[in-house]
Amino acid sequence: MKENKFEFSYRVYENLEELPEEQQWLLSEARAVTAQAYAPYSNFQVGAVAKLANGEIVAGSNQENASFPVGLCAERVLLAAASSLFPKIPIETIAISYKSENHKSDHPISPCGICRQSLQEFESRVNHRVQLVLGGMSGPVYVIESASKLLPLAFTSSELNGG
Ligand code: THU
Fold first, then answer.
1. pLDDT category, 162, cuts 50, 70, 90?
2. Which residue is catalytic, options 75, 92, 121, 123?
């Protein structure tokens, strides 16, 4: 028997102002994009903004539905948009923020499990890591160098070809 170890580290900034300039801008855009969410059921509005390797900026927000499972998270709306508008272009960074009618938005949220799976496959198919910048409307900001770090032992496309 042996034990494998998975190490994960990420940077914690005290607030948006402490971030490098480009990440600061992306996070403030993600905050603004929360206004484009359609989230009448959860009242939890999420905004995501990506900078692509070709310099383009693409945004996504969560889009809910009366049939709840039909709803899409901001991250997957963004990935679908980026991939449709600019096929095969890597994403350098995605900033994600949120606001809620019911709670304060003073700490980061991180992508849900399904979005982690989508982010992992996006990284692997364009062969480029996606940096994540996570923050609320105020408070600390987390910077994660590669989205795949959030999904250890991921199920990947290579398994469908024998591993
Ligand atoms: N949501 C996102 O858009 N991204 C996340 O990372 C977490 C959750 C959305 C899904 C749903 O519309 C609402 O937030 C509440 O779960």
1. confident
2. 75
